[in-house]
Prior knowledge:
Layout: E1 2-5, E2 8-10, H1 22-36, E3 44-50, E4 53-60, E5 69-70, E6 73-74, H2 81-100, H3 107-114
Antiparallel strand pairs: 1-2, 1-3, 3-4, 5-6
Amino acid sequence: MEIRINGKPVDALSVIVHTSFSQSQARTLLTKLKKLIDRQNFEIVLQACIGNKIIARERIPPYRKDVLTKSGKTVGGGDMSRKKKLLEKQKAGKKRMKTVGRVQLSQDVFSAVMRAD
């Protein structure tokens, strides 16, 4: 079973599992990872795969900054085009950050995941 973080395989987390237990093992491993990995400014997708088949998936949501608030005041009423422009700009930045950003896993995360509870 192979673990992927944002589509990139992490060899250190790969395990050999019997196929009858694979889905439950994958689910528990990904929930542990979800608790241990810190949230980022972009979405993190955790996947457990056997071959090319994804058997479990978890998602760590990104932090959201309220771009409609400028120095304590919300962007004024009236025309919605300004609000839409700010939200679209944020959306484009998050998309760009997701392609460039990498998730760093510390040694503590590896040891905590591999520890049998």
